[in-house]
């Protein structure tokens, strides 16, 4: 500001969906609460079943388990606070709380992009080199790939969050969103943010598009391999092994692109909130449903696990 007339902000107010009538906010609260519980339950079941069932100890389900961990973390960072804002009794968030929420949002978001690319590579090896698949995707390799998927989230989250919250804030402390995302918080800064905005755009493009290009390369090779399979049954079987992942990737990247890569003139705060719901709330719920309904191995494993649990329960005196 002109004379350095600014004071340190100690808390922010999340505007969330405060412009909507109270009745609509209550309806949203109930809807998001159900989605939140389904998300936690679905992803937890995926983790437990893939651990408990020996038939699901393959690399694909190892990476799926990692994805479920990420979806649970993503939800825990965003949804509980959003539910509080919808009831209008917990609309404030501390300075440190806002920074922490943004940090883990970037961390889980960045890690998920790279994990989806790793899962695409796993499908590429399984379909294009089926005989060498157990050797290539051994326990050591899959562990390295999982770590390599989680690691990029740390520098992305650390640099962007630390840099943004080192700026001075002045004037209003109202964040026009349901969580502490970078663009709405950046609008409250009273300093020159041009360099940060360039970094944020370049960083977002690299973190989002690099895994996306890797996924496209993997599926281009997969498509070429499937087309060479002579029988229709063989083609269907090969495609069915990657259809769930392809659908999850499509949902994630379409919603992410519509949120962050639309022209600013078409990107009103209210429309961005609605689009943000798709990848922060809806997609984490759909992922376990997609893998359960479209994957016979997972469906059968659920059945075996539940039958085993019921059998053990019946044996208890």
From TrEMBL:
<dbReference type="Pfam" id="PF13853">
    <property type="entry name" value="7tm_4"/>
</dbReference>
<feature type="transmembrane region" description="Helical">
    <location>
        <begin position="103"/>
        <end position="124"/>
    </location>
</feature>
<keyword id="KW-0675">Receptor</keyword>
<feature type="transmembrane region" description="Helical">
    <location>
        <begin position="238"/>
        <end position="262"/>
    </location>
</feature>
<dbReference type="GO" id="GO:0004930">
    <property type="term" value="F:G protein-coupled receptor activity"/>
</dbReference>
<feature type="transmembrane region" description="Helical">
    <location>
        <begin position="198"/>
        <end position="217"/>
    </location>
</feature>
<dbReference type="InterPro" id="IPR017452">
    <property type="entry name" value="GPCR_Rhodpsn_7TM"/>
</dbReference>
<feature type="domain" description="G-protein coupled receptors family 1 profile">
    <location>
        <begin position="42"/>
        <end position="291"/>
    </location>
</feature>
<keyword id="KW-0807">Transducer</keyword>
<protein>
    <recommendedName>
        <fullName>Olfactory receptor</fullName>
    </recommendedName>
</protein>
<keyword id="KW-0472">Membrane</keyword>
<feature type="transmembrane region" description="Helical">
    <location>
        <begin position="145"/>
        <end position="165"/>
    </location>
</feature>
<keyword id="KW-0552">Olfaction</keyword>
<comment type="similarity">
    <text>Belongs to the G-protein coupled receptor 1 family.</text>
</comment>
<dbReference type="InterPro" id="IPR000276">
    <property type="entry name" value="GPCR_Rhodpsn"/>
</dbReference>
<feature type="transmembrane region" description="Helical">
    <location>
        <begin position="24"/>
        <end position="51"/>
    </location>
</feature>
<keyword id="KW-1003">Cell membrane</keyword>
<keyword id="KW-0716">Sensory transduction</keyword>
<dbReference type="InterPro" id="IPR000725">
    <property type="entry name" value="Olfact_rcpt"/>
</dbReference>
<comment type="function">
    <text>Putative odorant or sperm cell receptor.</text>
</comment>
<dbReference type="GO" id="GO:0004984">
    <property type="term" value="F:olfactory receptor activity"/>
</dbReference>
<dbReference type="GO" id="GO:0005886">
    <property type="term" value="C:plasma membrane"/>
</dbReference>
<keyword id="KW-0297">G-protein coupled receptor</keyword>
<keyword id="KW-1133">Transmembrane helix</keyword>
<feature type="transmembrane region" description="Helical">
    <location>
        <begin position="63"/>
        <end position="83"/>
    </location>
</feature>
<keyword id="KW-0812">Transmembrane</keyword>
<feature type="transmembrane region" description="Helical">
    <location>
        <begin position="274"/>
        <end position="293"/>
    </location>
</feature>
């Amino acid at each position: 500001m002109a004379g350095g007339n600014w004071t340190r902000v100690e808390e922010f107010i999340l505007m969330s969906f405060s412009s909507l009538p109270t009745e609509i906010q209550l309806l949203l609260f109930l809807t998001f609460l159900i989605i939140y519980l389904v998300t936690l339950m679905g992803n937890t079941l995926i983790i437990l079943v893939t651990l408990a069932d020996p038939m699901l100890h393959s690399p694909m389900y190892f990476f799926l388990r990692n994805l479920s961990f990420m979806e649970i973390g993503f939800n825990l960072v965003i949804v509980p606070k959003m539910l509080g804002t919808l009831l209008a009794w917990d609309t404030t968030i501390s300075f440190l709380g806002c920074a922490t929420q943004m940090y883990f949002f970037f961390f889980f978001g960045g890690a998920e992009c790279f994990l989806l690319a790793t899962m695409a590579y796993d499908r590429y090896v399984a379909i294009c080199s089926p005989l060498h698949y157990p050797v290539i995707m051994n326990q050591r390799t899959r562990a390295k790939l999982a770590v390599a998927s989680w690691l990029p989230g740390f520098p992305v989250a650390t640099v962007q969050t630390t840099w943004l919250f080192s700026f001075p804030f002045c004037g209003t402390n109202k964040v026009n969103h349901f969580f502490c995302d970078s663009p709405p918080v950046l609008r409250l800064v009273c300093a020159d943010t041009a360099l940060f905005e360039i970094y944020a755009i370049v960083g977002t493009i690299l973190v989002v598009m690099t895994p996306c290009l890797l996924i496209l390369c993997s599926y281009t090779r997969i498509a070429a391999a499937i087309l060479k399979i002579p029988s229709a049954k063989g083609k269907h079987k090969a495609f069915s092994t990657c259809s769930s992942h392809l659908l999850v990737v499509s949902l994630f990247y379409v919603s992410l692109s519509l949120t962050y890569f639309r022209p600013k003139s078409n990107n009103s705060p209210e429309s961005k909130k609605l689009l943000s719901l798709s990848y922060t709330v809806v997609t984490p719920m759909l992922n376990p449903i997609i893998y359960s309904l479209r994957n016979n191995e997972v469906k059968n494993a659920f059945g075996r696990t539940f039958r085993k649990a019921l059998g053990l329960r019946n044996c208890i005196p």
